[in-house]
Amino acid sequence: MDFEQYPDSHFRYLTRADVIEAAHDVDIVAAVAEALTLHSAGQSVLPEEAYLGWTTPQGDSARLLAMPGALVQDGRPPVIGMKTINASIGNPGRGIPRSQGFTLLLDPETARPLALMEAAYISAMRTAAVTALAVRHLAVEEPRRLALLGCGALAQAHVALLLRTVPTLDRIALYDVAPDRAKSVARYIASLPGAADIETVLADEPREAVRDAELVVPVTTVAQGYIEPDWLCPGALVCHVSLDDLTEAAVLAAGTVIVDDWSLVRDDPRRLLGRMHRAGTLLGPDGDPREGITAQPGARRVDGTLGDVLTGRHPGRRDQDEIVISNPFGMSILDVAVADRIHARAEAAGLGARLTL
Q1: How many Cα atoms are found within 13 Å in the side-chain-facing hemisphere of 167?
Q2: pLDDT, tens digit, for every residue of 84-127?
Q3: How far is it, in rounded angstroms, from Cα 6 to Cα 1?
Q4: What is the pLDDT at residue 357?
Q5: Strand, coil or helix: what is 310?
Q6: What b/e string do you get for 252-290 counting C-beta neighbours within 10 Å, with b at 16 or more?
Q7: pTM for this prediction
Q8: In what order do the strands lie in the sheet with 215-218?
């Protein structure tokens, strides 16, 4: 083959600053809602993610995730891409974000790189967008009190988006094992437009933060549950972003449990719901236990997916006093959907750099 016939193609590279600038004109919540709806209709491809974990030379837990995905809406070219997001627990102590990586978009015809962009901002904002959609469709009417457990970059992303999308909020309780991080998020809240009437509380313990909160959003790095069912007030919605903060008892006691994709939860051996499924205490939406596993007494069923709620195939909250859990494992197609819109905006505005392979 004469490689001279195939000159290197150009692709657009977007730094974090470029991504943030382009995102100003992108409705991230709408992009995520559309992707969830397409996924619920079977118009997506969501392969298994690749996971690599290790211990750093200084003894911290670190990991790499590679997550491909595609949206294949009828009448449009497919949107194909992959997110790689890498993290080390020790990074905040070094003064740098815990996680970082790239989101890659591919040309659907040639499969060559179309765009490469910073991943952490997109990842944080699409995660917050899933929470915003859960609040819109699963919370009690007019939620007023929000509890944020963990005060890193994800907490800031949630605050920025929820203050815009949940106008009834008037109180935010913050807790972090490092009090200075909670104080930093409190200062960030105070700097936001429209936050003058928000009461911000720094809690000494996580239970204190959760008490009386209609919205509970854990964004931590814990690997063992601590939120018990009696911590939660009637009608609370737990957006279980970091996936391991609830105890098994809290899941079993919930009135409704919603996931973003059951296959991801089912196949994962590390997170709470996947472990429960392997133990026979959590059944799939069809009511069946894992193959080869016997359902345990008191086992509960996953009720459905957030996409099903958005499309009306599942009613969501059934009454105002039930505890509802939204357990978003995190789907690459959401990052790809948001990246596609950011890339389109960057192309129109001439943002970023044109590079060659």
Answers
A1: 0
A2: 999 999 998 888 888 999 999 999 999 999 999 999 999 999 99
A3: 10
A4: 86
A5: helix
A6: bbbbbbbbbbbebbbebeebbbbebbbebbbbbbeeebb
A7: 0.94
A8: 199-202, 171-175, 145-149, 215-218, 237-239, 324-327, 256-259, 304-305
